[in-house]
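TASK: fixed-backbone design
INPUT:
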């Protein structure tokens, strides 16, 4: 069987993906830098998949050429998950996000362009963030793509985007891969740069590529330590400490939450079938859910009656609505999401109950944004 390298392989998506590949007979290499923000000061390596024969781990930094060389030996399929992912944090750690996300990807591709290797396919984990606000319909102007929301409108509580042409209200609709790209954060800019690097290099080098734009991925094994990403983890930490959940804006902003098992199935299909080769594909549930509803469902599953507060606070770089049009991935790979949100949250909560309680680190993250004028 072909050997698979998963960069960022000790993150929760990577671990689930390693299990799927291993269960189907593929030898797997997991490359990870064990970031303290995600894994803690003393990373846990107790996941059962790490004890399996045929699953090897390499501690490495994507910015280091020799680390890539060690991990790439004998590899046919690269699943490139490694990235800095916090949208808000990216707005003030611009150099670090660019170095890891863009330069790290460039190092991989430079090796493939200039050195002997066995890589046949690259799958890039990109993000719905490249769309910015995504697709909307205006009753006067038809399909439109609103501009990013600036501090001027957010300061007065004008949360909903407006038509960029006539200024009227608009209705969010599923966003397809053909939608206009309009990154609203540094993180999103780096993901789009990754996409262009992989796409152009793949064509030039004769390596099959698939770009997968993940929506909001959640599920068992996700980091409960990182205060910059993963609202289910952030809200769960609040509930475990009997603290109220604070909702930014009015709590009615929506996201497409997709369970990790659906995501790894999409990646596996893209790796083993040719229907996605050379394409960019959305990976999501195709269903918008409000942040307020997520908070309510978590409280229901935990059986906790902590209050939910609408703060009216906002973060620059956040979008209002975006959810995936799944037509292309259904057609190309036969993918269909299988885990509905209610079931997925129940599974997530059952897992959280087995984990040590993490301290609430959100205030520290919030203070960093406020001090830089990135949050109001």
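OUTPUT:
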């Amino acid at each position: 069987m072909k050997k698979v390298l998963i960069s960022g392989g000790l993150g929760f998506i990577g671990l689930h993906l390693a299990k799927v590949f291993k269960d189907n007979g593929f030898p797997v290499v997991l490359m990870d830098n064990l970031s303290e923000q995600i894994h803690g000061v003393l990373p846990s390596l107790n996941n059962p998949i790490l004890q399996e024969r045929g699953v090897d781990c390499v501690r490495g930094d994507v910015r280091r050429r020799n680390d890539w060389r060690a991990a790439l030996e004998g590899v046919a399929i690269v699943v490139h998950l490694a990235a800095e992912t916090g949208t808000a944090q990216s707005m003030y750690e611009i150099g670090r996000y660019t170095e890891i996300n863009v330069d790290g990807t460039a190092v991989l591709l430079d090796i493939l362009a200039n050195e002997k290797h066995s890589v046949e396919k690259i799958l890039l984990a990109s993000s719905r963030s490249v769309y910015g606000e995504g697709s909307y319909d205006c009753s006067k102007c038809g399909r439109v793509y609103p501009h990013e929301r600036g501090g001027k409108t957010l300061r007065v509580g004008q949360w909903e985007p407006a038509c960029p042409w006539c200024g009227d209200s608009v209705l969010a609709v599923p966003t397809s891969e053909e939608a206009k790209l309009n990154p609203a954060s540094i993180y999103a800019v780096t993901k789009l740069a990754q996409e262009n690097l992989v796409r152009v290099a793949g064509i030039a080098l004769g390596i099959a590529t698939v770009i997968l734009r993940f929506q909001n991925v959640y599920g068992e094994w996700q980091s409960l330590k990182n205060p910059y990403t993963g609202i289910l983890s952030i809200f769960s930490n609040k509930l475990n400490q009997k603290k109220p959940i604070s909702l930014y804006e009015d709590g009615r902003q929506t996201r497409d939450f997709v369970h990790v098992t659906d995501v790894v199935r999409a990646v596996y299909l893209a790796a083993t079938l040719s229907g996605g080769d050379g394409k960019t594909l959305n990976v999501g549930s195709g269903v918008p859910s409000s942040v307020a509803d997520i908070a309510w469902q978590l409280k229901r599953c935990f059986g906790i009656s902590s209050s939910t507060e609408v703060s009216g606070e906002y973060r620059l770089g956040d979008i209002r609505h975006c959810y995936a049009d799944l037509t292309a991935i259904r057609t190309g790979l036969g993918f269909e999401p299988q885990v509905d949100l209610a079931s997925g949250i129940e599974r997530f909560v059952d897992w959280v109950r087995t984990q040590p309680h993490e301290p609430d680190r959100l205030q520290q993250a919030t203070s960093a944004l406020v001090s830089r004028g990135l949050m109001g």
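COMMENT: The two ends are 53 Å apart (CA to CA).
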